[in-house]
Amino acid sequence: MKTLPTSMxxxxxxxxxxxxxxxxxxxxxxxxxxxxxVDNAPIHTQITEDLKIALYPVENEQMxxxxxxxxxxxxxxxxxxxxxNELVYQKTVGNGSIIYSKFNLSQLEKGVYTMVIESxxxxxxxxxxxxxxxxxxxxx
Length: 140
Prior knowledge:
Keywords: Signal. This protein has one helix spanning 5-22, and strands spanning 28-37, 44-47, 52-57, 63-69, 77-81, 87-92, 98-104, 111-118, 123-137. With 140 residues, the protein is mainly β.
């Protein structure tokens, strides 16, 4: 698998700009179920010759955004497994050149899960945690 570091930096910068331009917070304290990558990274990417993948959780929400650039129009499947490697979700997201999906994870119990994105030739996996916590948000 050949990686393209310049493209990865460009994709990370693009997505970081998206976060900054779309961020807003409400004032108050609330108990929430958050989704975070196990390594606490704000974004995960993988760029190969066939697919460009970016995963990023929505801060203080129960959502993960998935962005896949698929120039060869391959069918792409998204799977979520729990810590016992049991399949809890599966979806074929199509064969378009750009695939963007939001995953509402509010029905998942607290724990560690793995999201797998695969085509006929590529496989990407990343673990995330669903956790309950108190948070305080400030208005901008």
